[in-house]
Amino acid sequence: MSVRIIEVGPRDGLQNEKKILDTQVKAEFILKLLSAGFQTIEATSFVRADKIPQMADAQELMKSLIAAKVDLNKLPCLVPNLKGLEVAGDLGVREIAVFTATSEKFNQKNINASIDESFVRIAEVCNTAKKSGKKVRGYVSTVFGCPYEGKTSLETLKKVTQSLFDLGCYEVSLGDTIGIGHPEQVQKIYKEVKKHFDTSKLAWHFHDTRGIALANIFAAYQEGARAFDSSAGGLGGCPYAKGASGNVATEDVVQMFNLMEVDTGVDLAKLADASTYILQALGRSSASKAYQAIIAEKV
Asked: How far does Cα 194 stand from its chain's mean position?
């Protein structure tokens, strides 16, 4: 048995850290993650520098990785609009990610657009990307709840997910953006989406605000999920969600599956080394229990 871990630390993690890192530090972090065995690492996002300054060096980062002869098929990048797609395309990016939400208020806060308006942009990006042979992955935020609207709609979830598939997304990641989901809710949502979609084309993206992201991943796994987003060292969070402390730590996810004898393809020791490198650069610690245990064993 195996699962696929999509490492989102370099993008979703670092874009929400206060400290802005040198481009070469980011590049080295990604190279260390590749060495740990990841087949998919979300490298960066082509967004406005004034909006997300942590990602202002996206072009320089990709040029550095290209110079290191990295397989670009392993490095998807987030693209919010046609301008971002154009820049990414010029650099040879081969997979992009697009995003929307199940919450109107969250979408407005996040990208200043309604859900329907977001799909106008997404359609432009997807149609143009497909013409140039790029793969497209979709994200749906606030699947388990919204910081502004509270409970979100399963019907809206099904609608936006179907729209992303209709636009050519090969996979859609369903996100617990603020970390409020619980295992019973995971099971309920999984059983509902299973009625309408091929669940092998769905991934799951949990935040660990309440410390139960691993329980949620296990619940999804028991239902049949086999693809999960996570962030090395538990980097990141959500700038639009008060108290959303961060993504689930990849170390915790990999350790859990290792103990269950489920293959992830990831070397846990090398992953911890990559996390140590980036955490030291950020001047911060990690809440990951698995990471702390690995580091303690080295002392």
From this structure: 21
